[in-house]
């Protein structure tokens, strides 16, 4: 597997706007896909900001115009052997948990694609703002992986019919459709997206912090057992998928096609 310390500097950047932290996934040439470096940097960054008393709210976004996060980096995923599945998915789980563990309000601003791991990071946040043209989804089945953790997270936002359609088809839906389904909090024109996200964050930051923290802790407690169960079920399912060889075959074909373009 690729070294999680590789290019760890700058893969997650932080900008401050008063008591608002703007956290930027910063691998724009790879559509901000999650690799070991970005995963660990995001966990560390969110943990530090959660402990920073000068920060009252966070905005998460992605660098560039193509994606918030296009999901798992397939170069890394293609290198994973079945013996590495458990620690690899535990680190992925820790990344989602770092978003869930925030005691401060979090707003995600999505331009372009939020898919797979990026989709799930967004679903772990409190508010999701996007454009009508953005693309959202859970395409794991197309890569030979079972849709488990993402399917659970969707139960917190949409009904079973939408969940089944997105989890089993792997198809992405537009930001407009995601809003209509209940996955997205609000729609904005692209030029208005970041100003709207910052305005929402400032409004949340102005609320009494103890009440916000305790409300978030209770919301987390209500959903933690389901999340933990999904994470364990996801490990079992992906072990079986990798043992069958489907992910390896699908990703090898994709990487071969990409490298011959």
Automatic annotation (TrEMBL):
Pfam families: ECH_1. GO terms for biological process: fatty acid beta-oxidation. The keyword Amino-acid biosynthesis does not apply. It comes from the Bacteria. Keywords: Isomerase. The keyword Transport does not apply. GO terms for molecular function: isomerase activity. Signal peptide: none annotated. CDD domains: crotonase-like. InterPro entries: ClpP/crotonase-like_dom_sf, Enoyl-CoA_hydra/iso. This is Enoyl-CoA hydratase/isomerase family protein.
